[in-house]
Amino acid sequence: MPGWRDTVPKARQAPAAIIPAVSEFKGIPILPAERSIRSGEKYLTSQGFTAIKDGVKGRGSSAPATPAASPTPPQQAAPRKPAWLRAPLAAGAEFSAVKQIVREHRLSTVCEEAKCPNIGECWNAGTATIMLMGAVCTRACRFCAVDTGNPRGWLDAEEPDNVARSVQLMGLKYVVLTSVNRDDLEDGGAAHYAAAIRAIKRVNPGTAVEALTPDFQGVMRDVQTVLDSGVDVFAQNVETVERLTHPVRDPRAGYAQSIGVLRGAKAYRPTVLTKTSLMLGLGETDEEIHRTMLDLREAAVDILTLGQYLRPTPNHLMIERFVAPEEFRRYRERALELGFLECVAGPLVRSSYRAEQALARNNAGLDAAGLAANGKRHGS
To answer: What is the pLDDT of residues 175-233, one digit of tens each?
Structure first.
């Protein structure tokens, strides 16, 4: 992001000649960073590498627009958004205060980069999920609106301390750290994660930290680096059921790989809570959801969140169905019967939603019955 220092070791920096001011890359126009960039366009970042806005190329791409296992016919219109999916307005005094802290300390948040519908609610409550290691991911999952590219080893060495100070200014007792995937780094960014967690604990000893990490390509040594930092909750999202994993997720991600990371994390640090998340509405069946829950419990995962997939741009995967609030309530009851400590479930739930309340055993305060009634009042 503008103003972030380039702290790549000299041996890993590309010579200036490799990063020329060019107008196109492999025949694709590169847009100046200061120009308004449209979704799906390639542009040149302020750090000198190319990225694709919102992570997925425009419709000229040959990549499939829907999961192969659950195609949507071209003539089929997207289902109409129901009334219960109305999110609070992203405005207010607390929202502005959090936004100012994020800008002043040069932070990225998944709230903004992933276009989270709960940004107004969470920021007005004085909480935010901080995204480490920049705003450009090395992967291109078909559901995700984070920009994709290859940062080529770039990191901001000041970020861990900036994050710790921001947590202090926000007065947070619970903070969620997440990040883009950084397959360009030898350890996937594990040491950077650990440095940020230790900095938070040093400045804010009473603050609990949840780390929603990449899968580190299944390398348990890197997972253990994060677990050794003093983290309280370790999360790695499986995202969808096994049948729909590809092409919903990037080819480098995997259902078995994510579950293996969660299983290994619990075995290495049994006292650290483990957590994962599923998006619904991509074409999965009730039987597949139940099978996924069983697989996660076999891996001793403690906490599960379930939310509705929402299409961030027209270039991303189609929504196959909208899951009603009463269905989410039923899925939550099933998860609790299987032994999860908590399952936070609802249409607008995201993996970090009300994370500090996850162990309150109250669906993080969500009133599914009220949401269902609200939908009926609006004619859904």
So the answer is: 899 999 999 999 999 999 999 999 999 999 999 999 999 999 999 999 999 999 999 99
> How far, in Å, CA of 146 to CA of 140, rounded?
8
Is the separation of the CB atoms in 261 and 216 below 8 Å?
Answer: yes
The Cα–Cα gap between 149 and 146 comes to: 10
Instruction: Return the structure tokens found at 140.
Output: 């291109």
DSSP for 49-88?
A: -EEEGGGS--TTS-S-SS-TTS---TTPPPPPPPGGGPPP
User: Residue 294: which pLDDT band, with cuts at 50, 70 and 90?
Assistant: very high
What gap in Å lies between CA 170 and CA 175, rounded to an integer? 10
pLDDT band at 149 (very low <50, low <70, confident <90, very high): very high
Cis amide prior to 247 (ω within 30 degrees): yes
User: What pLDDT is recorded for position 369?
Assistant: 45
Whose tokens are 């405005």? That residue is: 91
d(CA 13, CA 216): 23
CA distance 72 to 66: 7
Q: Which residues pair with 50 in a beta bridge?
A: 44
What is the side-by-side strand order in the sheet with 147-149? 42-44, 50-52, 147-149, 136-137
- Closest alpha carbon to 4 in 130, 110, 157: 157
| Phi and psi, residue 136, nearest 5° | -120, 120
The pTM is what?
0.78
How far is it, in rounded angstroms, from Cα 199 to Cα 229? 10
